[in-house]
Specification:
Number of helices: 15
Largest sheet: none
Structural class: mainly alpha
Amino acid sequence: MPTRRNFLAASASTLIAARLRAQASAIDVATVERARIIAAAPAALAAKPTTLTDLSITIATLTAAFLVTKDEQYAARALTHVDSLSGIKPGEDVLTLIPIAEIAVAFRFLVDSASSAQLSTFAVWLVGIQSFLNTDPEMTLARDRKDHRASAWLLISSAIARYQRDDNTLDACRRRFRKPMLRNQINLQGEFPEELATPNPYRNTLFNFDLLCGVCQLLASPFDLLWDYELADGVGLRSAVATIYPVIADRNKWTSVSDAEHFHELPGRRPGLLFAGRAYKRPEYVELWKSLLPEVPSALAATFPIREPLLWTTRALHGL
């Protein structure tokens, strides 16, 4: 028969276990990533990017190096690349715009190093991109799809709104995440059915996982626990993460059709694992993220939407 002593002992054990989980999941991302970032910094300093993707990777690497070293040369060099962004016009495919999300996230850490003219030019460029997302017919079609294109649209829009402190757009993005995105994209088994129907279901599942976790990382707050939100039947991001975690840990557990290309080069280090591990206080997610290879195969580069998770897990000055 349960006694008060047993009850108190069990309660204490549960509390201790919860605290240990919280401590283990509250990883110092800068410490884990520091060596990799510093090793990548010299190439980023010398880089002359010519595409939006190259610009994004270079800017993110330089900004991350600035964060871990406080060396202004990295911020200054990142800003030289930001200056050229206004000459880049949006394409017809929302997937080509994904790099803008990490540029917007990175620029939060560069505002004190930027000139007034640079701040103004960057703000105008972002306003133009946000308007394009909301008015261009191809962009609105992508927004309303039931696959990773809708997730990409939401990531870009959320990142821009977060930088601009646009509360109306942030609230609209949160509503879109709850409905219709969760219903459209996640089934009762925690799978992404639209991604499973593609020629590369594993790759696209991981891609969409990172996009949606990135969205939550941008939109969730102590006043809006988006990570925990579930529909009436239990569908939510938590169930998707629980389903995806085992097949990242062991690719052989993937029971759907194998990808037509590059299946054995996956999964790679998925930032979604880090974000979800911190949000759900699941240290096993974080440990798996740490154990995966950080190098991104060039053939799969477009399906790794977030390159510098340090930028996404660090609070910028001025509350950005």
